[in-house]
Write a sequence for this structure.
């Protein structure tokens, strides 16, 4: 029997390149929320993949962007921390034919890393001209050497197994850091809150999705039915947002709760009852004290 191997692999890149979708695909379960809106991921999320003779801990990081407030600065800090203290880095990019200043800054930071770096070029299914893939690969190779370069499509599940094979080949002998039945180190309360926030991201518009923070304030199991009961607090920044999140006659809040409950039932294989409340915490994204309370700063 071959020697057991393990490693920590950080997934880094810009917002909306598919990092969270790829993480969910790799571990075979939804553990990171996704939406079409950029900057959906706010915290570092670990997903654990168990193989016959290996264990990989993938770390999903917030998208690299230009921060506009203290929350953005905290997210940027979390993202750049993903470049340190890992066995390898998976740099995930869109299949686009150009690089801008943000791309070049991230590449500059990657050059300073001492670990192996993989390049995943996602969304190749959107390329009308498939020959463009070669030009995109050469564009990145002009700036940085990679352990391997793999064009992929998370949406169409294309070349994901090839990417995984490339990563497993560089794993070093090591222990299993998590039990076999563990797919994430996120607490239940954090997962529940994030699923609710995902639905807010999907169903609300303009500034609302970025202005809310969701906290699971209470979680318990009904001793008679076994049903999970969660009290969820949704914080907005301005009074005008409260009515939008609740909606006319509570319609929006009900829509958010129904969609979140459906996902949570599947994730935890149990029935959920969600009690959603909306409060206002003025300008929380600009407050270091509030961000510390919400866990963005130590």
């Amino acid at each position: 029997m071959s020697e057991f191997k393990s490693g920590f692999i950080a997934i880094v890149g810009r917002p909306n390149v598919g990092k969270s979708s790829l993480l969910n695909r790799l571990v075979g379960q939804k553990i990171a929320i996704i939406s079409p809106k950029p900057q959906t991921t706010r915290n570092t999320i670990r997903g654990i993949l168990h193989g016959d003779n290996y264990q990989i801990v993938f770390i999903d990081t917030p998208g690299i962007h230009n921060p506009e407030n203290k929350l953005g600065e905290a997210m940027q800090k979390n993202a750049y921390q993903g470049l340190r203290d890992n066995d390898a880095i998976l740099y995930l990019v869109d299949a686009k034919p150009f690089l801008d200043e943000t791309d070049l800054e991230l590449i500059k930071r990657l050059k300073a890393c001492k670990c192996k770096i993989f390049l995943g070029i996602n969304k190749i299914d959107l390329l009308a001209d498939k020959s463009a893939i070669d030009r995109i690969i050469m564009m990145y190779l002009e700036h940085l050497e990679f352990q391997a370069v793999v064009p992929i499509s998370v949406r169409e599940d294309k070349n994901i197994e090839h990417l995984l094979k490339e990563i497993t080949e560089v794993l070093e002998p090591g222990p299993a850091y998590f039990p076999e039945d563990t797919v994430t180190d996120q607490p239940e309360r954090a997962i529940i809150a994030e699923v609710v926030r995902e639905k807010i991201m999907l169903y609300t518009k303009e500034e609302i999705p970025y202005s809310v923070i969701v906290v699971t304030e209470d979680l318990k199991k009904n001793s008679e039915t076994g049903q999970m009961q969660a009290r969820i607090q949704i914080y907005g920044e301005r009074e005008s947002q409260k009515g939008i999140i609740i909606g006319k006659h509570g319609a929006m809040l009900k829509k958010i709760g129904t969609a979140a409950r459906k996902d949570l039932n599947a994730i935890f294989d149990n029935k959920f009852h969600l009690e959603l409340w909306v409060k206002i915490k003025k300008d929380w994204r600009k407050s270091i004290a509030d961000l510390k309370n919400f866990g963005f700063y130590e």
The longest helix spans residues 251-268. The radius of gyration is 20 Å. The chain has ten helices and ten strands. The first strand starts at residue 5 and ends at 12.
